[in-house]
Amino acid sequence: MAITTQQLIQWKQQGRSIVALTAWDYAIAQLIDAAGVDLILVGDSMAVVLGYDTTLPITLDEMIYHAKSVRRGVKRALVVVDLPFLTYQESLQQAMHSAGRVLKETGAQAVKLEGGYPAIAETIARLVQAGIPVMGHVGLTPQSVHQLGLRQQGKTQEASERILLEAIALEQAGVFSIVLEHIPADLAMQITQKLSIPTIGIGAGTHCDGQVLVTSDVIGLAEKHPPFAKVYTNLRETITKAVQDYAVEVRDRKFP
Ligand code: KIV
Ligand code: NA
């Protein structure tokens, strides 16, 4: 049975924690879906596995190309696709066009937009009215890296209040869930208690309604990872060893 946005909201009410990970192609999506992940995000953080330093260069066409591949691998999880930098901020029309393309061309069920400032909340409200499920994202928003850096957000009283108000505005705009990235755990707890939609944390402590990590960090494929990521296995080592063993055997004419 495919997971719906309503199911995630129900799980919050029941206190069942939501498991989310990112994916960038069929192979990874198929594996993590079969392993029981509830929500699969085609995050613009795939910039990392494509060799970019930030998420800014990714285009909507690239996101759609990868999301189609991911979608083919998923049977159960809810698939959410990031709208990349400057494909939704320009105007409502631009946002509607971008989100519409993602849903129509990829078969994903929802899109994610960064930010909680008034213009974004308004855009999101209109997308939701048009029947497009939207996930919010506040705290550290990597598309604003040149303004925010990659530092933890919401550390002062003022910043913390602003993030709480943004989260409330996004819930009112109709998002079905919100990512809370790299904010203090007590702020994430406060937001989680205040909202009736699920919060999905990344570097936001244990009190969120679910957790998301970037899969290339979790499996040790990324060259570097943020301090809050947990590396569960080291695929860089595994792959390097396999390739070196193969190279030795070919050169020694032991394989085939
Ligand atoms: O792109 C991404 O991977 C994300 C997650 C960090 C939430 O937006
Ligand atoms: Na993202």
From TrEMBL:
GO terms for cellular component: cytoplasm. The keyword GTP-binding does not apply. Its cofactor is Mg(2+). The active site is at E181 (proton acceptor). It catalyses: (6R)-5,10-methylene-5,6,7,8-tetrahydrofolate + 3-methyl-2-oxobutanoate + H2O = 2-dehydropantoate + (6S)-5,6,7,8-tetrahydrofolate. Mg(2+) binds at D44, D82, E114. One of its GO terms (molecular function) is methyltransferase activity. SUPFAM superfamilies: Phosphoenolpyruvate/pyruvate domain. 3-methyl-2-oxobutanoate binds at D44, S45, D82, K112. Its main location: cytoplasm. GO terms for biological process: methylation; pantothenate biosynthetic process. It is an enzyme of class 2 (transferase). Belongs to the PanB family. NCBIfam families: panB, PRK00311.1. Homodecamer; pentamer of dimers. This is 3-methyl-2-oxobutanoate hydroxymethyltransferase.
